[in-house]
Amino acid sequence: MAKTIRSSGHEALRDALIAARKNAGLTQEQLATRLKCHQSFVARVESGERRIDVIELVVLARAMEVETAKLLAVAERETDADHRI
After folding, report:
1. How far, in Å, CA of 71 to CA of 76, rounded?
2. Other Cβ atoms closer than 10 A to 7
3. Could you tell me the superkingdom of the organism this chain comes from (predicted)?
């Protein structure tokens, strides 16, 4: 079984989330405030220690005012076609 947390798709999604946060002009702390969570949550997501589910992706995208589809497209493009769950 392939692990998704260190897959190319997951790493591309992490990079896209970091870029989206920075493009929004937000620090991890500011994003955490918008999400009503601790900065450590944002840090764990961005470092790859924590995966996010699709609902969390929607909430993160909204908080950064970016289209969820754009973030999802990055993960889809970078995920190997034969990747197994």
Report:
1. 9
2. 16
3. Bacteria
> pLDDT tens digit string along 7-48?
899 999 999 999 999 999 999 999 999 999 999 999 999 999
- Cβ neighbours of 74 (radius 10 Å): 19
The CA distances from residue 37 to 4, 40, 43, 77, in Å, are: 24, 8, 11, 29
User: Element (H or E) spanning 50, and its range?
Assistant: none
Query: Token pair of 40, please?
Result: 């450590």
Alpha-carbon dihedral sign for residues 46, 48, 54, 55: negative
60/28 Cα distance (integer angstroms): 12
Counting DSSP H helices and E strands in the chain, the numbers are 5, 0
Which DSSP state fits 82? T
All domains of the chain, ordered by start, with CATH? 8-78 (1.10.260.40)
pTM: 0.90
